[in-house]
Amino acid sequence: MKKKLAMPVIRKIEDNEASLIKFEEELRADSAIKEQEILLDYPTVYIHNWKYKKTYEVYIGETNSIIRRTRQHLTDVENGKKWSEKLVENKAELLIIGHEHFNTSLTRDVENRLIQYMMSIESVRKVYNVRGNPQNKYYPEKEFEWIFREIWKKLRKIDDNLFLEESAIRDSALFKASPLHKLTADQERAKELIVRKVMEALKENKKKQLIFIEGEAGTGKTVLNSSTFYELYNRAEEFGLGNLKCYLMVNHEEQRKVYEQIAKKLGLTEQFGEIVCKPTTFINQHRPENPVDVAFVDEAHLLLTQGRMSYKGKGQLRDIIDRARITVVMFDENQILTADQYWEAELLERYKQMAKEQGNYRELKNQLRMAADEQTIAWIDAFTKQRRLIKIPDDSTGYEIRVFDEPVELERAIKQKGRCRKTALSRMVATYDWKYDKKKLPENRVTKYWEVMIKHWHKPWNYQLQKDMEAKERKDIKELAWAEQPQTINEIGSTYTIQGFDLNYVGVILGPSVTYRNGEIIFDPGKSCNKNAVKNRTLSDGTKRKFGEMLIQHEVRVLMTRGINGLYLYAYDEELRKALQDAAVK
After folding, report:
1. Domain boundary assignment for the chain
2. Do the Cβ atoms of 306 and 314 come closer than 8 Å?
3. Per-residue pLDDT of the chain (586 residues; tens, 9 = 90+)
4. In this structure, which long-range contacts are made by residues 545-551, counting pairs with CB atoms below 8 Å and at least 24 apart in sequence?
5. Long-range contacts of range 149-153, CB-CB < 8 Å, 24 or more positions apart?
6. Bridge partners, 427 (sequence order)
7. What's the pTM value of the predicted model, to 2 decimals?
8. d(CA 291, CA 271)
9. Which residues form the GIY-YIG domain (predicted)?
C-alpha cells in the first residue's frame, strides 16, 4: 500500500484574508502545481490553531471548498468579535490537508481522528466543532490508517509542540475516554437504546427510569458512557430536548478528573456549568421535587450502599434515581472493592429487574481492552474468579504473561517497557497489603514515604513522590491521571489510582493477602491493610458480616486486567510464587 498510495499534501498559511488570497493566487497561477487540484477542487480537512502563551485552541473541519469555507470562518462572529480579529490577535495558523483519494467519508474520518487527538493533548485547552462523525463502510476505508499516519507525521514536522507523538496521545486517559471513538455494534445498540429511552422519558414526562448497562472490565462501558452523554448534549435541539439538564458522575477521583477535562475541552463546562461531579455532590445539590433530565453514572458498582463521611443516605443509586427522570448506570459486580460499596444480592437484583421491566437492560460482552486471545482471558478468569491456577497459555496474539522471582526483576522489566515509546504507559501496581495513609506521615520509618516493602526492596505507594516536587512541577501534572505522570514509573499504584484505566504492560505485585494452599488460591483479609475492604458491613436485616475475602478477590481482578499487551507477576507468598513459576514453564 505504501508504494501505491500518494503522500498527503499539507499547506500552512497565516490565518487571515490576505494570506488566503495569496495562497489561492499561487495555486491557480500555475496549473502544473501538483497541489492545485487536490487542495482547491477536492474535499480537504483543515485546522485553525492559535496560541495563548503555552496553550492552544483549535478548530478542525472538513469541506468541499477550502477557500469558501475559510472566508465564512473569517467573517463568523463569536461573543461580538469577528473570528478574523481573534485569529489575528493570536497569530493563528491555518493548515490545509489534502489527498488525491479524499472523498467525503474519508475526510470525515480524518477530521474525527484529528479531533480525538487534539482533545487528548494537555496543551490544547479547547477544541471547536467537536461534533464527531465516524463513518461506516466506504471506499477507500482500508487506506484511512496509512493516510492518517502520514498526515500526522507531516503535522509533527510543522509543529511538534502541538502535534505530539501518536503513541503518547493514544496512551492518554483522555483519548481512551473520548466520546468520539467509533463504537462497536454492541456499543451502538446500547447507545441507541439510551438515546431513544431518554427522548421517550422526557417527552412523556416519565420519572425514575433506570437504564442498566452491565459489563466486565474492558468491555467499553466508559467510552459508551462518554459517547452517549456527549451525543445528548450535542444533539439536544435536534432531538427536541430543549434545555437539557444532564449530569455525569463517577465515584472515582481519577476518572472524574478525566471526564471533567473532556467536558472543558468540548466547551460543555463553559456553556452548562459543572456537569461532571461525584455522586455525593450531585445528591447534595439536587432535590427529588426538581429532578434533572438525565444522570449518567460510570463505575456504578462504586456507588455507596450505606452512609459514609459526607454522604448520609442509605444508598446513592436510590438517591440519584429520585433526582433524575432517567438514570443510566454502567455496572460491573466484579469491581466492587469496599464494604461500603457491597450490593446485597436482593438489592442488586431489584435494580436489574427494574431496568428489565422497563426494557432498559443491556450487557456488554466483548473484551476490548486486552489484546489477548480467549485462552489468556480464561487463565485470568480461572485465577481471579475460580481461584484456580492452571498452565499459562501461549497467547496467539502476542499478549505476554511473565512471572518473576524477585520484585526488583519485575521493576526492571516494567521500566524497560516504560522507556520504549510504544509501551511507555507501563506501571507497577500492588494489592493493598502495605500500610498507607495519605493524611499522615509514616511513623518510625527510615524513609518519608509510605512504601511497598519486600525484604530489602521497597518502592513508594502512589502519590508519594509528589512531596519532593516543586509547586510548578505539581501544577504541570495536576490534570494528569496517576499513570500518566512521569514520576509514577518509580511508584506502586493501587486500585484507587488505576481502576478504570489502561496500561500497556502492568506489573502486579500480589502481596501477603494472596496465597496458594492445597491447590487453591486463597484471599486472606487478615493480611490486607485495606480497612474499607475488611471492616464489618451492616446488612439491611441489621446483621453484621465481613466481605473481605470477596473484595480482595475483586481487587486482584481489577489489577490483573489493566494491561493491554501484557501482565507481569510477582507473588509475595512463596508457595504461590513457585506455583506461578511452574505454571509458566513451557
Report:
1. 9-164, 185-364, 374-584
2. yes
3. 445 788 999 999 999 989 999 999 988 887 666 788 899 989 999 999 988 888 899 999 999 999 999 998 888 866 556 776 777 677 899 999 999 999 888 999 999 999 999 999 988 998 987 665 666 666 777 899 999 999 999 999 999 999 999 988 999 999 999 998 989 999 999 999 999 999 898 889 899 999 999 999 889 999 999 999 999 988 888 777 778 999 999 999 989 999 999 999 988 998 899 999 999 999 999 999 999 999 999 999 988 888 777 888 889 999 999 999 999 999 998 888 777 787 877 888 999 999 999 999 999 998 888 999 999 999 999 999 999 999 999 999 999 999 999 999 999 999 999 999 889 999 999 999 999 987 787 775 667 899 999 999 999 999 999 988 999 899 888 888 899 999 999 999 999 999 889 999 999 999 999 999 999 999 999 999 988 777 766 565 566 777 889 999 999 999 999 999 999 999 999 999 999 999 997 6
4. 546/339, 547/339, 547/342, 548/339, 548/523, 549/523, 549/524, 549/525, 550/523, 551/336, 551/337, 551/338, 551/339, 551/342, 551/525
5. 150/7, 150/8, 151/8, 151/10, 151/97, 151/99, 151/110, 152/117
6. 506
7. 0.86
8. 20
9. 41-130
Indicate the burial class of 581 (C-beta count within 10 angstroms; 0-12, 13-18, 19 or more).
middle
Superfamily of domain 185-364 in CATH is: P-loop containing nucleotide triphosphate hydrolases (3.40.50.300)
CB atoms within 10 A of CB 6: 12
Sign, CA torsion 254/257/261/266: positive
DSSP 117-146: HHHT-TTEEEEE--------S-TTGGGHHH
Strand partners, 458: 453
Place of cell 519486600: 454
DSSP 403-438: E-SSHHHHHHHHHHHHHSGGG---EEEE-S-S---T
Q: List the Cα angle 432/487/278 in 5-degree steps.
A: 60
Residue with cell 502481596: 511
Contacting residues for 204 by C-beta, under 8 A, at least 6 apart: none
Alpha helices in 368-406 (DSSP H): 374-384
- Number of helices followed by number of strands (H, E) in the chain: 22, 24
Handedness of CA 26, 30, 34, 36 (dihedral sign): positive
Element of type H or E holding 209:
strand 209-215
- The closest alpha carbon to 146, from 120, 160, 166, belongs to 166
Answer yes or no: are the C-beta atoms of 55 and 261 closer than 8 Å.
Answer: no
Question: In this structure, are residues 399 and 373 in contact, taking their beta carbons and an 8 Å threshold?
Answer: yes
CA distance 274 to 252: 17
